[in-house]
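From the pipeline queue, job 12 of 40. The input is one protein chain; the requested action is below.

Action: predict structure.
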Amino acid sequence: MLDAYTRLSTNHNFEIMSRKIFLMPLFAVTILILPLFNIGAASPLSGKVIAIDAGHGNVETGAVGYCGGIPVVEADVNLAVRGLLKEKIDAAEGLGYEVAQLSSRNDRVADAESAGADVLISIHHNGSSNTSADYSQSFVTQKNDKVFAGYIHPSIVNALWLPDKGIKSDGYGMTVYGSLPGILTESYFVTDTDGACDFIDYQNGVINTRVQKEAQAMYDGLVAYFSRSTDGGGRPNR
């Protein structure tokens, strides 16, 4: 027969075990629920207006390359990248605003500003008489352009694995006008045979082409830009 001390100790141990058994499911439920809050967190692009300009257009073709005699027009490549990028931005609760293909660059920037854009990406692809010339380069003008480009351009370089000619500060293209943080990208050469044929592959339904990689890289750069801290004087929010 158990003495009083033994009975008391046994009851105490049983009570502790009962509490552990009861609490274990609660811990398991908590562990399962916590990730759900992270999954439901707002996207960094939520509520942001991203102005996307497809360079050239209308009667302006831009550079023209060839793949086996088939012409590849820069303006078409620019539109393809813009379309994919807009889909990604919109899916992330942002607004990919397609800038009107107006004849004046100044008017295009004004169109982006009137839409309440937070940033501007002007999509271009380079050209050369040398069909093997190929590299990535971007252009900026203003100080806030350089900050923005510091997120977009490296992302493109890392995605395409082409020689990096860097970010050039120049009074060139749409970044000259207005005050929006902007970048003019020349991600690769459509006159490069590989680049031209890659676009034909994209049109034929091939996945993981330069067009898709470029759009994803721009999207990733946007997410990084709008996710950054404002402590350094940045401007992720309007």
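Job complete. Confidence is low (pLDDT under 50) at residues 4-10, 16-38, 231-238.
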